[in-house]
Predict the 3D structure of the following.
Amino acid sequence: MIGTAPDAAGVTIGIVAGEASGDALGSELIRAVQARLPGVRFAGIGGPRMEAAGCSLWYPHTELALRGYAEVITHLPALLRIRGDVFRRLCAANAPLFVGVDAPDFNLGLEARLKRRRVRTIHYVSPSVWAWRRERIGKMARSVDHLLALFPFEPPLYADTGIKVTFVGHPLAASAATASSRREARELLKFEMGVPVFALLPGSRMSELEMHTELLLKTAAAILEAQPQARFVVPLVSRDAREYFERVQYRLKLESLSLKLLYGHAGDALRAADVGIVASGTATLEAAMARCPHLVFYRVHPVTAQIVKRRLLLPFVGLPNILAGRFVAPEFLQCSATVDNLSRAALNLYDDVVTRRRTETFFASLAAALTADSATIAAEVVMGELRTAGVAC
């Protein structure tokens, strides 16, 4: 065993989050654990929110923020070096517990190595084994002691694996929109209530920005041509992301577009919008929690697209559609993600007030089903696993 401590003071818990959504989950978990065990330290990979919560960052999460087979393969040697270094540092720190926040391609391998050294392992966010790559369940059983599941349909999937599974709810549901949220968000962002507002979410990874920025800018231009009063709000995760977005806008000579670029604040952007155009991923659920009717789109490298297409188990990729079991939000993937398709669909959705109101009502019911005190439940699991590892807490 890597090590135990007589009590929690001074104990280091390893934690790795691979993108902005994981950074948010990790930061809430860190704060909830430290409120109960002030002497515990967290160290690993994360973003600014985890760092602000007190985590010592060995690497920024942007090092792991890649999407798709083709993209990951080119960075594989660097990823393996980082994973090996994190493993060695956790060994040196005698960490009794590791928490992998999403990022399964990186974290499951690390968790397997740590588990063989009798370190307790928690994986926070089930991989989407219900949608594709069902074989990951076996890998999870070899790597994970305790799984924190965000969706209520996930625990039964692991019933025969020996993994403890705890439904913690989805943290986004805790701050879900209310009936007054659109007005409040528009006041905050200085949009008038009668103005058509479209939220454009290209994704948080640089690889997603590279695939999606030109598409969204040209889509916005097409929407503006048909709807001259339209305004656009674009939440971006970092200064680098904003600078890239602005470079593409300048290259396309679309500086005249009425764009409000935000650092983060995706929730505010979605609450303010009549319609969202949202890259597939956690942001689609964020759109649902914001009661924002939206389109789902996504593009990846063609090699990645062919591999994924053969392995999909569901006809949907957007999380609201998966949870609903039907197309609540239209999806435009790969070749169908075109300027014409996205602009026409966004304008049609804006014009169809009845469908938008019906969608908003459904999203409110979805938020209620996913609401739980996520950080508190997750912190209790961490404390239980520390006790199993021999740490007094």
Notes: The radius of gyration is 21 Å.
